[in-house]
Amino acid sequence: MSGDLVLYDVYSKLDPPQWSSNALRTRLALNFLQLPFDTVFLSYPDIEGHLSKLGLAPNSPPPYEARPRYTLPVIKDGDKFVSGSFEIALYLARTYAARGTRTALFPHNTVPLARLVADYLNDNVLSHARKIVLPRVPTWLDERGAAYFRTTRRKWLGVPLEEYYSGLSEQAKIRMDVLRGLDGISAMLRDHPEGPFLQGEECGYADLQILAVMAWIKQGDPDTWNTALESPEMRALWDAGKAWLA
Fold it and tell me: What residue stretches are annotated with the GST N-terminal domain (predicted)?
């Protein structure tokens, strides 16, 4: 064991196995804060049973006809459990303040900025990119996880994942929507030309959220990722923060 901190993440066959944009946000935060941690990877159908055995209540709000009862990421810190990437970030910021070479996760009280960036990414990037990436997710998972993902997403989306794929012309439009959303991030980064982060030379959780989404797009839609990194600002951010994805 590397310490008392444990990150519960979604299992995959990928190398490295981490891919979930939500769990990547927590992984980035832990690495950014220089906190040693272990990872427990759970296949999708095992998440609810494992977390309930640990004594956790459902961490996703009802109705459960449209979402799972339990979601990842979750962290364990000693005898304390925290779920949800943003709640985990707030907990880590309170518990592991800047010290020595460790800098603050929300420098200069940038929690509001991080919330705004999270909303922007969800509304302008993820809402579009999911239409291309989600149908590819089962190919990354173990057999049981892939079957669970297909079954539950068909129930929640109302169509099989294969039909969630758009036609080629529609995919081109979706990619343009994703890139337009990422152009907005590039514009934010240009506001601090000394860069490479949203606050210039100082990284914070707002930047880590962008990196997590970029890593997810890189896995699910490499062509869009390559185009996005033609932006000097996005390339500089990626190069500055990619080591924290490990």
Answer: 10-100
User: Is the distance from CB of 190 to CB of 233 less than 8 angstroms?
Assistant: yes
Q: ω before 193 within 30° of 0 (cis)?
A: no
pLDDT given for residue 171 in this prediction: 85
- In the chain, residues under CATH classification 1.20.1050.10 are 111-244
> Which CATH number describes the domain made up of 111-244?
1.20.1050.10
In this predicted model, what pLDDT tens digit does every residue of 101-130 receive, in sequence order? 889 999 999 999 999 999 999 999 999 999
Per-residue pLDDT, 159: 87
Please determine, for residue 3, whether its predicted confidence score (pLDDT) is greater than 90: no
Q: Say what the pTM is.
A: 0.95
What DSSP letter does each residue of the chain carry, written as one string?
--SSEEEEEE--SSSS----HHHHHHHHHHHHTT---EEEEE-GGGHHHHHHHTTPPP-SPSPTTSS-SS-S-EEEETTEEEESHHHHHHHHHHHS--BTTBPPSSTTS-HHHHHHHHHHHIIIIIHHHHHHHGGGGGGGS-HHHHHHHHHHHHHHHSS-HHHHSPPHHHHHHHHHHHHHHHHHHHHHHHTSTT-SBTBBTB--HHHHHHHHHHHHHHHH-HHHHHHHTTSHHHHHHHHHHGGGG-
In the chain, residues under CATH classification 3.40.30.10 are: 5-99
- Whether residue 178 contacts residue 125, with contact meaning beta carbons closer than 8 Å, is answered with yes
Number of CB atoms found within 10 A of residue 143's CB: 10
> Could you tell me the two tokens for 123?
């509304």
Q: Specify the CATH number of the domain 5-99.
A: 3.40.30.10
